[in-house]
Amino acid sequence: STPTMKLIVLGLPRTGTQSLAEALAILGISPVYHMRDVAKNKHQDLWVAAIDAKFEGKGDPWTRKGFDKILAGYEAVADFPAAIFPEELIAAYPEASIILTTRTTDSWQASMLSTLWHHHSRQPDDDPSPLATLRRKYHGHCWGNDLPANGRRFFDEHNERTRKAAEAAVAESKAAGEGESGSGRKFLELTVGAGWGPLCEFLGVPVPDVSYPRSDDWVQYKATVAKENETAAGPA
Length: 236
Known about the structure:
Elements: E1 7-9, H1 17-26, E2 32-33, H2 35-40, H3 44-56, H4 64-71, E3 76-77, H5 86-92, E4 97-102, H6 105-113, H7 116-120, H8 130-143, H9 147-175, E5 187-191, H10 196-203, H11 219-233
Parallel strand pairs: 1-3, 1-4, 2-3, 4-5
Helix pairs in contact: 3-8, 5-9, 6-9
């Protein structure tokens, strides 16, 4: 039987989503759909279609039927591009608990500037590959292709919108009496660096006997950027 969607993680990239995905796997929630699964499954065009429907009015807004083409078989979903669809995913998977991963706005902006934005702003505009098309779409629709100017505002608005949608979903579940049986919807806001405690309590599982994962596909990239910056600055 197909796994049920247990958890939707709606924090933006650079809020610990990759470490969280690995933590969930340790806790037995797996597989988790993450940004790296997009290219692996050749899902770029599907996500572009979802973004086009949401932001450009092309086709009907996506519902579970559409998202299932991408997410069927996954027990959780995190990171971009999924995080662009908080309201839609909350509505599409009413059985799933909701996590918003977050951090301070300034630390998020700084992290984005040295990773996703640094990379994107140095790519040619005419790369026709599906992944480049998807990348241009989300940088365009999220912060008007200008993260330095508009990133902070988008981050704050995204988190506020997600909180609202999640809290409304929890309230709706309570009103339907689902909370009584313990099966009601739950929402957790998880700050980067919070470790196992809040997550395990939220999921009702014991804290495992291993360190909380610290994963970041961008570590090497950030080191290279830091080196470039040092060289550019010249001797101290």
